[in-house]
Amino acid sequence: MSTDEHYTPMIWKVVSLMILIVGILIGLILFVSDQRLIAFLFIFIGIVGFLPLLAISQLFEWLLKNPQAGIVTEQAASYHPSVEKITEKKWTLSQAERQLLLDYYENQGQTVDDILVSPVPNYVAVIVDGNLDVVMLNGSDVVLLTKMDVEAIPELSRWIEEDVLQSES
Predict the structure, then answer these.
(1) Helical H runs in 35-135?
(2) Which of 19, 42, 106, 154 could join 49 via S-S bond, C-beta 3.0 to 4.6 A?
(3) 141 vs 104: CA distance, rounded Å
(4) What is the per-residue pLDDT across 39-90, written as a single tens digit (0 to 9) for each?
(5) Which pTM value belongs to this model?
(6) How far is it, in rounded angstroms, from Cα 24 to Cα 44?
(7) Treating both helix axes as pointing N-terminal to C-terminal, what angle do 3-32 and 36-65 enclose, rounded to 10 degrees?
(8) Contact 124, 117 (CB under 8 A)
């Protein structure tokens, strides 16, 4: 760690203190010259500008004292719960949820061929008129997902590619 890094918290403290002092001084000068509203504004800006910068300097000090605090281990950064762990706690589609899906597609004038429960809670694959829809059940709402939405959920995307699409072909 270089010597410059140790000066960083001190610099932040000095800058925050200067903002506080300048804001209060300008505020007092304006207060004396009967411009009270602007004076209070400068005092307020001085105090409000001082507090976040002081907090930043304290954060720098803490990080210098605890160098390992800001480091995320490789293992923690690459942690993703596997599909196997999710399937151990497999959720089931209630009769009300099944009926919600059937009613939704019936209102769209489409016929549901099959409903496949995913290993990710509240997500199902629905085969509608020979096409695949991926749906999120959000309370009493049915939300159709785009391909990008599905790809944003790795476990769901993997399940669709490995299980659903493979079984259709």
Answers:
(1) 36-65, 74-77, 83-88, 95-107
(2) 19
(3) 9
(4) 888 888 888 877 887 787 777 777 777 766 555 555 444 545 554 454 455 7
(5) 0.47
(6) 8
(7) 170
(8) yes
